[in-house]
Amino acid sequence: MNPFISRFSTNSWVVPVTILSFVLGFMLMLAWITKDTQSTRLGRLPEDQRQRLTAGSMDLQIEFNKVSKEVLKLREEKTKLEKAVSSQTSSTKVLGEGLQEAKKLAGLTEVEGPGITVTLKDSKQNIPNDVPYSEYNIHDGDVLRMVNQLWNAGAEAIAVNNHRVSPRSYFNCDGPVIRVDGVPIASPIVIKALGDPDTLRGALQLRKGVIEEIQNIDPNMVEVRDFDLARLPAYTGSTAFRISKVPEEKK
Q1: What is the pLDDT of residues 11-31, one digit of tens each?
Q2: What's the order of all strands across the beta sheet hosting 177-180?
Q3: Which residue from 119, 125, 231, 245 puts its CA 20 to 30 A from 132's CA?
Q4: pLDDT one-digit tens code per residue, 195-234
Q5: Model pLDDT for residues 101-150, shown as the tens digit of each residue
Q6: Residue 73, beta-bridge partner list
Q7: Which of left, alpha, beta for 197 (phi over 0: left; psi -120 to 50: alpha)?
Q8: Is the peptide bond before 132 cis (omega within 30 degrees of 0)?
């Protein structure tokens, strides 16, 4: 029996495993992040990325605006294609006009016209010690009730802090921040509604309405103004239906 052959075949794994261990150790050394290497790597990043990474969070509002612009751009292209198709024949033209009306009703297009602006803001009064601080703040329920009152008064389009509201929109509080369809907004809350200004304003001034309740706490928390012309953006939220569907025609 050859002792050299036996020794080499028995320990043949030692050399490749040793080499692999050195390589793995070298890679771990490169990947290991210390305070010095972290500052060096951050210095290689673009300025905007470095600031966001150092802060530890992304600006949700900026990201939402970017996505919203992309959604609007895609919808505008889709509208152009729809109009191009509808101009081919009289029948498709009628279909295209009906489609555009449906999109306007659903809030998927920009609209403009007269209406009112309702501004809601937290109170700046000195709060009594025996009164909860939250009583002097605007909450999601206040915004929701205001929007519902405007719908009931005949508003044709509504936007909250320049976010178009649809029948599927939702409002909720996340600490001091109110979210509209998941997008954070802060006081002051600016609600714009298109419609007849006199009718809309009159509906909000009804007794025991949401404006009267807020003004009983602090009259400066609510401000209502008319405007002759304003443009509201298109709704940029999801329009997909996951559960419900159009029923099939019975044969």
Answers
A1: 555 555 566 665 565 555 555
A2: 171-174, 177-180, 183-185
A3: 119
A4: 999 999 999 988 888 899 999 989 999 999 999 999 999 8
A5: 666 666 678 899 999 999 999 888 887 777 776 778 888 999 999 999 99
A6: none
A7: alpha
A8: no
